[in-house]
Design goal:
Layout lengths: L3 E7 L5 H7 L4 H8 E5 L12 E7 L2 E3 H13 E7 L1 H5 L12 H11 L17 E6 L9 E3 L6 H12 L6 H4 L2
Parallel strand pairs: 1-2, 1-3, 3-5, 5-7
Antiparallel strand pairs: 4-6
Amino acid sequence: MSRLRIATIWLGGCSGCHMSFLDLDEWLIELAARADLVYSPIADAKHFPAEVDLTLIEGAIASDEHRELAKTARRQSKCIVSFGDCAVTGNVTALRNPLGPARNVLQQVYVEHSDPRGVIPHEPGIIPLLLDKVVPVHQVIPVDYYLSGCPPSASRIRALLEALLEGREPPVDIRYG
């Protein structure tokens, strides 16, 4: 059997799902013997690669950069997992939605409550273009599995990975959220 090519993505969220992934502890050594981590904030790869077998996407889609990375991952991955509650439902990241369009949020953060200059940054590369509404991953791309939890436990992450490594369907609570 060929080695599984795994990617993880961190979008709008707290990185708790990646921390839970690291909580796999010594099982990570077993995983490394059977799979390659080809893209991840843990690995610090700069460009999403082609021919990825499995991509775990943590976080909701809150910016144009998130949306484009999710679309790239879908095109270049055989299997996509919404990884954690922000990816599955929007969760905490989507709490900004009731504040209205992105410009209202930026106005509150940079002008009304924080920056003494009262200026929203406009230079390229300072802040990504925020979407007016934060959405879960499945509202932008098709998702194959939903691994809920805030964050999902290491044991549930392992159950997902073991099933996919063995070529079988993950447990029902992962398949359907």
